[in-house]
Each structure stands twice: as structure tokens, then as C-alpha cells.
Amino acid sequence: MGPDDILLLQRAIRQFMLRRTKRQFNALIDQEPEAYRNRLGNLCRYPKTRAQYYPTNETEQDQRWIVAVRNALAKLNGMAFVHKVLRVPDSPRWRNHAEPDRAWLEGMLQSAKALAGYHVLAALRSSRLAALEHLFGTRAAWSEYYEEPVPLKHTAETGNLRNRVRQLGGTLPVNQLTIADLPAILTNPESHRIACERDAEIYDAIGEIIRKISDQREASKARLIAKLLEHHHLLIAFDARPITLHGLARRLADDRIQIRIATSERPQDCQKVMQEFRLGSEASHIVALCTDAMSESINLQAASAIVHLDLPTVVRRLEQRDGRLNRMDSDHGEVESWLPQDSKAFAPISGEELIYRRYRMVETLLGGNVVLPDDLALADPEEEEREADDESATTLITPERIVQDRDQREQIQEAIPDAFSPVRSLVIGDQALVAPATYEHYRRGQARVISSVTAVCAEKPWVFLCLAGSDMGAPRFVLMSSDATPPQTGLEEICEQLRSWLGSHAPQRAFDHAAAEQLNTYLKRLNTHDELLLPRKKQRALAEMRLILPKYRPSKPQRRRSNGDETAEPDAVAPERIEVIDALLDLLNNRGERCARDGRRITPDLGILADLWLYLIRPAWAEVARSSRRKILLLRDLREYLGNHPPETTELDQLLYEEGLWVKPLDERVVAALVGVPDDTL
User: Fold this and answer.
1) Which of 446, 463, 493 is the last residue of a domain?
2) Same structural domain, 67 and 187
3) Where is the Helicase C-terminal domain (predicted)?
4) Helical segments of 375-490, H only
5) Same domain for 241 and 279?
6) How many domains does the chain have?
């Protein structure tokens, strides 16, 4: 993808992207801080997040054991992650490949091996307990450290890759590839069984190494939490694995510390955490040990510090977790975010993380057909990939780098405009066309304004219109000029043109007869271009209606035939169907204003009509999708099916009687107008 393509894509995306960053909100708050108070009546703003780093204190011997674990993982075949169905995904990448089957197979086998190693190391970075759970199951791992029953519900128990891969032995994947020379482990049951048994033996050997690793990592995290609670009344700690949190809770058992474990299988504890950590809470000396089930859409802003027990290796995960504290109505001016500094042997490597995120992306977008163990759902399927072209696959991922990436991402987000950025730039910033005092006067004005109209001098006639929204539609901007081109409706294009026309060389002029005549001319023209104000999908839906509806119109009345009677009366349904279809086509092709019973001018809302049509053809869409191999269907792909399966007359008739179909004409929805009048009309 070239620079021009990227620019075009960015311009398209920002047409429907609306976003305000924390920095932008804080800038607005700085303008009038008294206007922003939380429900306690205190001044508020987004707090500053200060990143802190803590050492995990692995011993030198521990690091040598990790090197031994990595060496053992390199010998795995990854049989637990080999696809159950050998099939090349239906995507442009593989359709255009010279040897898609062979290339996909080689990549899949490499990915399976890499994924097997990734999950063991990711679990081990959480805790030894989590690593043993992954290898041998929840109950087996817990019983090695504690005599008491497993604190997790049976449905939350997971792992046991050793037994899983052993049971898989001899069960060959279904082959849908066209190549004949597949590896023996994919075609011979005995070879497959031997490969699976070898993986199980390696898992056993890795388990023995993990049991020799000291508890320095877990002990260091527990000491950090206990120390932080001396300075912070409420503290949140995140880790991806519930068993790690339960193990940490045993280490923190102290009369001075109250512990809450908030995971997806403990909804009551989650509710309790939300109560104790809400704004205004007077709770104290509580640590909430949370999985990422608590990392989204939850307010925990009473806490002033967060500890990441495992390192979020993508920026979005870090933002989601820190966002529980970083709320606009927070009472804290600053919050702390503590991230682990793993030793070189323990630290995640970019290549390992990349292969996992790529797998999740393929699984989500193309429908991967291998099921990951439940405890391995560490990454959000929508997380962004880290670009790996400019960095080595062996680069360590450090907490400093993750924080730096987050800061850079925030700066990029500040620079990327959204759909309303061009509009805001007209009234805010160094290049604003409207003076701040003028904007504030009208923004704060209490008077009810029906419409505002003004005129300026221009080289050629034009008019800029602001349309009020309807019950089913948003407000719109429209720019019309004397050219034969259709009206402009894109915010960015309109604002660029206004900036060009309304510079220092555009003095205001009186709104006289010439300006009024010009405005009326454009208003009449506006009513004939209402379809251009609709989203592209609705425009396409109306175009398809114009193509399909004539096919449903009977050419002549049909006659009923019953009991072989060829002289039966004409079918009474045919005239009714003709009337309904003609009425719909009239709305589409000869739309115009009408008078309501109370004398008001009304016109059809084509956006409502398009919505009704899209709802009507939903069953057809589902039916075509079931029989098509294409992942994305277009409206034109339904033409043949809709032509062969016409809706009933009563269904078509419903399109005409939906409430809200008739609205005020566009010219009556104009709330502000700016008219550019040429000097020769004076």
C-alpha cells in the first residue's frame, strides 16, 4: 500500500470516526474549570498517569532454568495447535499465491510450534502456578502448593495440555489440501501418535524444570502490593489468569489487608469491588485482584494506583487497564501505574507476541479452525499488530517500551483528525474563522433562534446551509455553488471551501432582494437533491429498489384458475400490486412535496424508505449468504435472488405506511444560511 493509498484510507476512515482524547478534554476543562464537577461537587479532570516500574527479582539460577525451559520448548511439534481441518482460508492472500496449499501448510506447522511455546512462557510469566495449570490442569497445579480445595469453580478449571495432546494422538486432521506429499505426522496415525506422545513427554520435562524455579517473582509482587497499600487506600492489581490471583491472595493474607478477587466466575465479588472502588467510596486498605474481565467499561476511580502483575504487551491492553482509574470525574490529580521489569530470560520477545496476535487476527477475520484452551485467551482479537518489519523478532518487550508506545500513540491520536475536526477548526484554534467571543456569545445565548441568515460578497454565487436533524437523522451541512456539480455534503470538503471563500477578502453585505432571490433559487434546488444527504449504503439501497421493483409489477391482470376453469375472473390481487409498486416508484423517481391534512408541506424521507427496504430483504441476504463462499455480500449480489423470490404485496405495502415516512421539506429544516452574492448583483 503506497502513501497515496494510505492517505485515501485515512480520509475515508475519519469521515465516520468521532473521538476526543483525554488531553483534548482537559484542554476544554482548562477553559472553564468551574463547569466540570463530579457528582461530589469537586472540580475534576482526567488525572495524570505516572508510570512506575518494579523488578521481579528472579535469581540467576531461575534465569538459567528459564533458558532450559526455552530449549525444551524448541523441541515441541506443537501437535495441540495443528489445525483439525487442513484447508487454505478463502482470502485474497491465498487466492493469488502461486502454491497456496504448500505455503499455508508450512506456515501453519511453524505457527503451531511457536504457539505451543508462547503459551507456556506467557503462563510462566504470570506465575509458576499458572504454568503448571497450563501443563497439567487446575486441580493438579493447585494441589502441588496447597492442601485446601481448588478455589475456582469447576467451569473455570482449564489447562492440562499434557493430557490433551496425549489423547489427541492418532486422530488425524481432515485433509482438504490438494498436495499429496504431506508430512507423516498428518497422514499416518502411528506417526501422529508418536509425535503427540513426544510433546506430552516434553511437557512433563518442562514441568519438572518449573518446579525448581524459586518463588522470588511471586514474593516480589506480593511485597510490592503490601508496600503500596501503606500509601494508597485502594489498589487494583491485574493478571490474565485467575489461579495466579488466588495464589497471590494466599501470600497477602494479613489482618491489615482486605483482599477482593474479581474474576468472571465471581460476579458477586465483581459487584462488591465496583461498590468499594466507586467515586466517593470511604473504603480503605483494600486490594482488588482482577482479571481482564474487569478491564473494560468499569469505573474504579476511587483507587489511586494499579499494579500490572503481568506485562501488557500491547498498548491497548495497558490503556484498558489503566482506564479503570483514569476517569474524568476522578478525585485524584495523579494515579500510579506499576509495570513489571522482567529479567532478560523471562521477558517476552516481540516475535513470540507477534505470532500469537497474528493467529488471533486470522482466527477472527478468516475463521481459524483450531480452538485455543480457555485459559489462553490473553489477547483481544481486535488488538493492533505491532509492526515487525523494522525490528528483530528477538527484541525484548520492556515496560518502558510499552509506555513509550502508548505516549506515541496518544500523540498520533492527537494529530489524526476525526469527522468533526474540520468543523471545530472553524471556531477553535489559530485558523478559526469565527472569533472566540462571537462563538461564545451564540453558544451561551438563551434566545430561541428559528433561523439565521447572512450574506457576504463573493466572486461567484454560492450558499452554505445548516440543516436541522429529524427524528431519524442527524443535522447536515450542505454547500451549493453555481456550478452544475451536485451539492457538497462532506464536512472536510465544505470546511476547506468555506475557508477559501471566507478569508479576509469576503466582507459582509446587506441581505437584500438579490441575496434573497439567490437563496430561494438554491433552496428549490436543495429539495431535489435530498438523496445525496443520505449515507452511501442507503443511496445504494434506493438504487437497487429502482432496479428491482419494476420486475415485480405485473404486465397485465392475471386470471384465477381453479378446477380447470379457463374463464375465471381476473385476479383482484394484480391491480392492488400494480398500485403499490407504482406508488413506491413514484416516491423514488417523482418524489416531491405534498400537502398534509393540516396544510403543512411534507416530502418523503428516503432514508426511512431505504431502512424499510433493507429490513425487508434481510431474509434474502441471509439466504444468499448461506449459499455463497464470499465473506462480504453487496446489495447487487441479491438481485437475482430477489428477482426470483418477490415479496408479498402486503410486505411491499408496509413500506408506504411506516410512521415517520413523511417529513418537512429540506428548505424548512434550514436553521442557518450563509449566502455568497457576486458584486455584480448590487
Assistant:
1) 446
2) yes
3) 198-384
4) 399-415, 421-424, 436-444
5) yes
6) 4
